[in-house]
Structures are given as C-alpha cells and as structure tokens.
Amino acid sequence: MTYLEKLIKEEGPILSSELIEHLINKEKGLTKEAARKRLSRIKSNIIRVKGLFADGQFLFHEKEIFNTVDYYTGLYNALKKAGKQYFTIIQSLDFHYGQLKTEHLPSYSISPVLDLKGHVTFSSVLEKLISLRLITIKDDFILLSNIPDSNFNSKKAKGLDVAKNFILIQFNDWSRKIGLVSYNSSKFYSEFGKYQFNFVSPSYIGTLPKNNKTNLIPGFVVADILIGNTVNENQIEFFLNKIKAIKYQKNISNFIPFLIVESIDTKSLNKLKSQGVVIGFVNELFGDNYKELLNSLINLVTNAGAILKKNPEAYLDLISKLNKLVDGKTNNLRGDLFELAVGYYQGRICKSIDIGKIINYEGLQREIDVFGFTESEIFISECKGYNHKVSKEEVEIWLSEKTTIIRKWVLDNYMLRDKNLTFEFWSTGGFTDEAIEFLTKKKEKTKKYKIDFFDLNDMLNKSRELKSKKFTEILREYYTKEI
After folding, report:
1. Residue 118 near residue 85, CB atoms below 8 Å
2. 81-153 to CATH, choices 2.70.98, 1.10.10, 2.60.40, 3.40.1350
3. Is the pTM above the cut of 0.90?
C-alpha cells in the first residue's frame, strides 16, 4: 500500500487539494504538478468522485466505505469546503428542518432556474444531489438524506412552510397597500433575473422604472423569507450570491431586494445592509401580535396531534384570529391547514390522533395525513384542501401506492393488527364523476378493510354531528369562499 493509499484509508474521504498539501509537506521541494501526477497514478481500491468540487478537485475514498456513515460524512465535509452550489442546498434544507416543498427550494439556492452562462442550473444540481443520495424527493417535498447530524423534523418543517406562505400573503398585502408594488401583479416562488425568489413583483416607484423610446419598463421588488431560526452569515450567502449574480447581468431591471426574518445576528445584519438589502423584521413589518400569532401557527402545525386532542379549541381560536388578521385571505392556506380540520374532527371521536405521521415498512416510507384510533378502530385519513375536484387517477394512486403499504404496516404492528381499519379520503373540492364511480365500487367490493370518502357537504354534515357551531362556520368561511 502506497503512502497516498494509506493516507486515504486513515483520513477517510479526502479532497485532492488536501492530498497534494500532505505530499508537499512530506517532501520538501515537490511541486504541485508532480504531486498531481502521483494522484493520477493512485489505483488499488480507491474511488474518485469528480464533477462536484471547485477547481476540478476530486474526492478520494476507499471503495469499501461507500454508502456508509463515514462516506457521507466525508462527502458532506468536502462539499462544505469546495462544493458551494451543492452545499448551499443542503444547508438551506437543514435550516428548514430537513424538508422543503419542491417548488420552494430553488429560492434557497445559488443556482439559476434558467440557463445562465457560466452557471450550473438548479435542476442539474438537484439531479446530482439525488444521485449522490444526499436528498430524496417524496410527494411534493425534497428531504435531506444521509446527512450527519442533520436538523431533521418534518413536522416543524411543515409548520415553517405554512408560516412562510402566511407571511407572503401579508407581505404582498403590505407592499401593495403602501404603493411599493403594482396591485395585482405579485407572484410567489417566481423567477427574476433567472433566479427564483419567494416573492417577485413589478414596481413603478421612484427611480426604479426605466424609460425607453416606446414605454416604461418597471423595476421589481424581490424577497425571500428566513424564519424559524436565528439567521447567521452562512445562511444569508444564498441570497447575497443571487443578488450579486443578477447585478452582473446586462440590461437587468432595477430592483429592491428584501430579506424577511424573525431574528438575525449583527454581522449578518450589517453585511446585508452593506449590499443594499432591506431587512424586514416580521414584528416590525406586521406588529408584535402578528409574530406571536405566527409562532402559535408554527407550534400548532408542529404539535398538531397533541394539541387537537388535548386542547382542540386552540385550533378553532387560531383559525378565527388568522381570518380576522388578514380579512379572509387565509384561503390561500386552505391546503396547508386542512389536515388540522380533519384532525379536529377525528380528535373528537378517537382515543389518540397524529398529524403527518411518517411510517416505514420494508424500506418504503409513507406519510399519513391524519392517523387516529379508538379501542376497536383505526382511521387513516388522506386530506386534500383543494378548490378543484380530485381525479380518478389520484385516488387510484392513493389506493395502490399508499394504502397498500400502510395496511401492511398496520398488520405488522401487534398493537394495531386486531383493530378494524378504515381508509378515508377527504377533499374540500369534491371528486370527479369517474373518481366517485371508482371509489364507490372499491368501497362495495373491499371486505378486509373499509373505504370512505367525503366532500365538503359531507364534512359540514359531520361538523354538525359534533354540535360545534364554530367549527361549522370555519368550514363554510374558510373552505368555501375564494379570495
């Protein structure tokens, strides 16, 4: 075994630049070029990982450690040192407790969503991270995978997601009321300057617009949101990199960048200000009561099962406060909060409930929107807070890919296997005729477990069974009215 092979084995995954440094320190007078040639002659049991690291670097590791904790730890550290565009995504996911919606993640990347000379696109970076098994895609979400000491908490991640969407509604309302942006032109999770931002809107204020010979070209307001943790220098790099890259482009519109935060350290605050970024503190933009309400919203989504069972009125009170604060505009969050509505109902009839429960069976992972059980029954609820009808294809996938695995998991659990099992599909938008026909036939033919499905009228009937006037009002106001 050569010196280099022994070093790779002892140090674990190691970058070529670090190997070269070791060689030069060991042999005085050895040039970098000569050291590189020695690296090119490494054979034996050593694997080279390439195409990820700055300056054409390689990552060397023993073949035997592939797919182990040591391998992923070494890969993670190497990306942190020399794989900025990949590590930024990992860091952003970790900040958001290991999970972001697929359509939201590009906003927290330094990679453009459209082709830009000299830059790797976000989709290419994402494909590479998936192939390395550092992230996975599950339903509408991208999740961290095989990351050492990650801050993973899917329920907290969902709470932040709901809160961010709520902030976007408020920021849009605030910015158009003061005339900062055009009234009905804002877009969420949209592109500007070939990069994605949480918020993008044209603006005609001050010196932002440009005149050409034929018309007035608007400027833009762009914004991203970082909440749930104290923001530090590492976590603002994605934003500053996007701003810098856009400013280098020719013929780009004038723009004002906002970063909306709850808490940020002094160094990061000063760094953002020096780059012309407007820092919007949640409490200063919308008031202390708003921040308190936002934290209550995050806490409710994160701990929904326990709260809905022990203190269900907290859910009803929060929804009422949200509606009063934004004058009914919370309809945009109907999908995000619909699981809680179903959980509220199940909590009244079940001994125990869980929201967003993750189960694993023989290497397959599934999420149960609402999981509840009594002494003799189990209820597995799929919840879709849609304003459109669920298709036959969607219920077919639900029954073939989701309920099958969940049922096997239930039957393999000695505490649950003897209970009667019911799979429910709740859809505020109802179902297509084809979906209803399909579900009705399945409901009649299936004997080993029960299938039920409910549209909004069914839910209103169920709410009356609870004799909760407040809950019935929320269903009517929150899930039947459009913005």
Report:
1. no
2. 1.10.10
3. no
